[in-house]
Amino acid sequence: MISKKVTDVKEALQGIQDGMTFMLGGFGLCGIPENAITALVESNIKDITCISNNAGVDDFGLGLLLHKHQIKKMISSYVGENEEFERQMLSGELEVELTPQGTLAEKCRAAQAGFPAFYTPAGYGTEVAAGKETREFNGKMYVLEEAFNADFAFVKAWKGDEAGNLIFKGTARNFNPCMCGAAKITVAEVEELVPAGELDPNQIHIPGIFVQRIFQGKNYEKRIEQRTVRSHN
Hints:
Layout: H1 9-12, E1 21-24, H2 34-43, E2 48-51, H3 63-67, E3 71-76, H4 83-91, E4 95-98, H5 101-113, E5 117-120, E6 134-137, E7 140-146, E8 150-161, E9 166-167, H6 176-179, E10 183-194, E11 213-216
């Protein structure tokens, strides 16, 4: 069995270059590839395009790349928790392509499955559909959306094996699975890396065929973006 294991995040990021397009899993701060993001910040790579549901917060997640002005374009669904994101977008420093959340997920999944494009009703009649082909099916209008074309996908899983098979845990099973195999190279960081054959096949969410590199991450903060507690009565 082919081993996808690399020694560390530095080896996992070999081949990254300025101007590339990266997918990054996670939702809010849940399930984000913390080690990969830190390494990207330290690499001083620039002019990159990031595809992610959101851009983290000002001092964590993709917000760290924004702070150093390493991101040229952000393709995402939500910007509400990041003041620097908002500032750069409104000032014109950052190119932003806002995409309906379901469309964002499907553009990842289409790339993963090898489909070049698909039709969706989301966004028809709005700015989202500007300049795009539209077509009627059964009396309803749809917008043609093209699948993403990314160089690297960085995902985070709970557990994986050296063959690249992945298991996600809880809410971290968000955009991570549909980004696996949706780029030329998929890099998975996991909390626990085990030898091939140790995972229960019935528990695997993503088979190793969708992953090119895997490593065991460390020092996960797993921050909570918005902590809400019930008042004690």
